[in-house]
Write a structure and sequence with these properties.
The protein is mostly helical. The chain is about 70% helix and about 0% strand. It is built from 12 helices and no strands. The radius of gyration is 27 Å and the shape is elongated. About 5% of the residues have low confidence.
């Protein structure tokens, strides 16, 4: 997640420089055909293009709104995971008495669960957007995409980890082990039936959060909205230079040669600017569709997991505590 208030020119250019170059070359080519080769018949009336532009604007506005809803739902889910992680640790410490090792195992297993969930959600899917090479170099992405078992190794005992390595969904089996551990504690008389019920309720909520995250991860943004929004935007920006050709014809008659060059340049730059705005709006929507991919504007799950780890280990009175995850070039993962 980008944490600086203003984006800055570098990340903007890294994300859109190819489109800017294309728009400039395309618009310049169209203006050259019209003004220097005298292909006057290629000009289009600006009024129909304005209607298309308004329609595309409404479509892109809807697409952006729905894409942002997916991101915001994902962020709220991880905010809830933070709250229930603290609840889990508090209930374990207050309910499982005279069993510090069991307390530690269950709290650490929870830390393994949040990190397993984080890594599983960041695994690429068939419909994920690829990160551009230039953007990869800029953000120096975290090396947090290794195997799930390797990531959770610091939190899980070697014996339990060995039983998890071949599982398809390690996060699910970690929650299952929490339930089995509670059953054992109940049989040993270390917790009451009511305490077991309260702790099982937290496990149920954690499963709900995991399922909701997996739903967002595994359900792509409806392609009819995503695809046609991009198609309509590109149709508009490709036609736009043809509608700008005769917009300044009356002014051209009264201008000198240098004045005409300036007016042509201004018209080209205006067309490029409008095209860039429409395509950038579409690009923002596409990059918000999948909030768990680890791109620079996605949910900062690594930082959230570290915050939970600090809080829960502090509840265990452990020292020293790990440092918070800090932004790398204004990007928090």
């Amino acid at each position: 997640m980008y944490v600086k208030r203003n984006l800055g020119i570098i990340p903007i250019l890294l994300g859109t420089w190819k489109e800017l170059v294309f728009f400039f070359l395309w618009t310049t080519f169209v203006f050259y055909l019209y003004y220097y080769l005298q292909w006057k018949y290629i000009s289009l009336a600006i009024e129909p293009l304005s209607v298309i532009g308004i329609a595309v604007s409404f479509y892109l506005g809807f697409k952006n709104s729905q894409s942002y809803d997916r991101f915001w739902e994902a962020r709220k889910l991880w905010g809830a995971i933070v709250n229930y992680s603290r609840t889990w640790a508090t209930q374990v410490l207050s309910s499982v008495k005279d069993a510090p090792e069991d307390q530690r195992i269950m709290i650490y297993r929870h830390l393994g669960w949040i990190n397993a969930l984080r890594v599983q959600l960041r695994q690429p899917s068939s419909f994920s957007l690829d990160r551009s090479k230039s953007l990869k170099r800029f953000i120096e992405n975290y090396a947090a995409y290794g195997g799930v078992a390797e990531i959770i190794r610091p939190f899980i005992s070697p014996e339990e980890l060995e039983t998890l390595e071949t599982r398809k969904n390690i996060a699910t089996h970690l929650m299952k082990n929490q339930g089995l551990h509670l059953k054992q504690l109940l049989q040993e008389g270390k917790i009451s039936e009511f305490q077991n019920l309260m702790l099982q309720k937290v496990i149920e909520e954690n499963f709900n959060f995991q399922g909701a995250c997996e739903r967002i991860k595994n359900t792509p943004f409806p392609r009819q909205y995503a695809y046609f929004g991009t198609v309509f935007a590109w149709i508009f920006v490709l036609l736009l230079p043809f509608g700008m050709l005769n917009a300044f014809d009356e002014e051209f008659v009264e201008l000198t040669s240098s004045g005409r060059i300036w007016m042509e340049t201004a018209a080209i730059l205006l067309s490029v600017l409008i095209s860039w705005i429409f395509i950038t709006i579409d690009k923002v929507a596409r990059n918000s569709e999948d909030p768990f991919e680890g791109r620079f504007n996605d949910v900062p799950m690594t930082a959230i997991c570290r915050t939970i780890e600090i809080d829960l280990r502090d509840m265990l009175d452990e020292h020293p505590l790990p440092e918070k995850v800090v932004p790398i070039k204004n990007i928090l993962y």
